[in-house]
Design a protein that fits this description.
single chain, 277 residues, mainly alpha, Arc Repressor Mutant, subunit A, Tetracycline Repressor, domain 2, two-stranded antiparallel ribbon, 12 helices, globular
């Protein structure tokens, strides 16, 4: 598992434990919330003591259970996968916590042990994969910069920036394709602007630095406008609206990421080069 992904999961587990302790120490010992929490942790709750533990007299389980950490990790992944899918389709305002709970098949109350509110869930969905994509793209850009030396090209830099993500979309299956659409929606929303800046700006500025060396006679203004135009095309592609499917009569498919990967860097590079007419 990627280090950034593991760190994010550990943070969420730590928050869950703190929230669980608050509930269990609140005196609500026989509530549905307590039962859900017990089920989530794979433990029984001592109703007399109001804390996590095994009830006195309990016998050993008849079958080997997964560890608490494994159960929590699986539950978190299921919740994040469901939220990611729904946010990618309907955006932040088109999804409720109840929608997520129904898709996972759990009670809405359980979501609140993991996340304070919908905004925190939205942020967790974004960050879960952001670290993976940023690390891969930064490594690819640094490797390209090293190999290109004093002679980087626009197309070469764009391949280093774009290909790592398209490889994830192609090889990672539905979860990564959903994340691509999720990011496309985030990029155009008020809720996502700060998250995009905090997570992706270092990678984007690395690309800009290489483009400046590849285009020494171009103004900074042209290079930043060029990036603005290409990121718009990229987000429209990741959204997979199906419009190109309809316009082309099925010749092109919006989910054909191998076809996109083959063409997009060359197309974008030509746009950059055309800015200096």
């Amino acid at each position: 598992m990627n280090c950034a992904h593991s760190h994010a999961m550990r943070q969420m587990e730590s928050q869950l434990k703190s929230r669980a302790n608050c509930v269990l120490n609140s005196g609500v010992k026989d509530s549905p919330q307590s039962e859900l929490l017990a089920e989530e942790f794979g433990l029984a709750i001592s109703l007399d003591e109001g804390k996590l533990g095994v009830k006195s007299g309990d016998t050993a389980p008849k079958r080997l259970r997964r560890s608490k950490a494994e159960q929590r990790a699986e539950s978190l992944e299921q919740i994040l996968d469901a939220a990611e899918y729904l946010f990618s389709k309907n955006g932040f305002y088109g999804v409720t916590l109840r929608d997520v709970a129904l898709r996972v098949g759990i009670h809405t109350t359980l979501l609140h042990y993991y996340f304070d509110d919908k905004h925190h869930l939205f942020e967790a969905v974004f960050k879960r994969r952001a670290g993976v994509t940023c690390d891969r793209r930064m490594a690819a850009l640094e490797q390209y910069e090293k190999e290109a030396g004093d002679h980087p090209t626009v197309e070469g830099a764009l391949h280093a920036f774009l290909d790592p993500d398209f490889d994830l979309y192609i090889e990672g299956g539905e979860p990564w394709v959903n994340y691509a659409a999720f990011c496309a929606r985030v990029s155009h929303s008020h809720e996502g602007a700060a998250m995009m800046a905090a997570n992706f700006d270092p990678v984007v500025l690395k690309l800009i630095g290489i483009l400046k060396r590849a285009l020494p006679d171009y103004s900074d203004e042209d290079i930043f406008w060029g990036y603005h135009f290409i990121t718009g095309a990229l987000m429209n592609t990741l959204a997979r609206t199906g419009r190109i499917d309809r316009l082309s009569g099925g010749i092109c498919r919006s989910d054909d990421f191998p076809a996109v990967r083959e063409r997009i860097a060359k197309f974008m590079a030509a746009g950059f080069l055309a800015l200096k007419g």
